[in-house]
Amino acid sequence: MNESGSAPTGFSVEVHGLCRAFVKGGQRIEVLRGAEMTVHPGEAVALVGQSGSGKSTFLHMLAALEPATEGEIRVDGRALAGRTRAELDAYRNRNVGLVFQFHHLLPDQTALANVAMPALIARLSAKEAEARATELLTRVGLERRLTHRPGELSGGEQQRVAIARALMMHPRLVLADEPTGNLDPATAGDVLGILREIQRERGVTMIVVTHALELASRFDRVLRLVDGRFVPA
Fold it and tell me: Where on the phi/psi map is residue 88: left (φ > 0), alpha (ψ -120 to 50), or beta?
């Protein structure tokens, strides 16, 4: 349960026999090889592994940004494969929050405008989008930075804006790819702490890729990606 006492609102994630292969220079490169994983609603899982092991590829597959070569991903009991492009777009916009190592903020827009963007894309009113964005930026400690553009913010502040943006549509699944990779250890700890606090409060499911084992230890469970498969860390 989340802190309000209600049942978790997060999605379940089931991965069965998942394979992902690429052809490069005439060679077939297998990144995922029959991977299996189950993540329960409201669970926070850290994913670790060597660089190039396929962690980011896996997150992209969960976000329906890359297809599986073989196997199946089921989110909230429903397979991602077979959905139309419109259904996948709606899945990402309404149910998935994405946080990346490089925040991808719009440099010419304020923090408030960056966070409000997903709601405007979903055709919420400008008034409601701004109210939600203000609430989230306040929640991540940036209530005094609403009108600042990314270039006027520190690295840690920019990543907080990215977190607020990812949470804008009340996602049930948050996927974060090395969200603290460019931050100093103290700032990284603060940013991860904010992610975990909000994850607990809202009961969302969270999967975070990180190379920092100390940070990974703060999660409910840690999995390691080895030879294309998930094993307990």
Answer: alpha
What domains does the chain contain, in order, with CATH numbers?
13-107+154-232 (3.40.50.300)
Tokens of 127: 């008034």
Give the C-alpha separation, 231 to 211, whole Å.
Answer: 16
Locate tokens 């400690």: which residue?
141
Pairing label, strands 221-226, 229-232? antiparallel
Q: How far is CA 188 from the centre of its chain?
A: 16
pLDDT by residue (tens digit) across 205-227?
999 998 888 888 889 999 999 99
Specify the DSSP class assigned to residue 78: E
- 20-33 burial, b at 16+ Cβ within 10 Å, e below that, comes to beeeeeeeeeebbb
Convert the pLDDT of each residue in 155-196 to its tens digit.
889 988 999 999 999 999 999 998 887 778 888 888 888 888
Give helix then strand counts, H and E, for the chain.
7, 10
Strands 70-75, 205-209: pairing is unpaired
Structure tokens at 18: 């998942």
Q: Whose structure tokens read 């976000």?
A: 63
Give me the phi and psi of 2, to 5 degrees please.
Answer: -85, 180
d(CA 18, CA 68): 7
pTM of the model: 0.89
For 38-77, give the DSSP string. Answer: EE-TT-EEEEE--TTSSHHHHHHHHTTSS--SEEEEEETT
Determine contact, residues 230/37, Cβ cutoff 8 Å.
Answer: yes
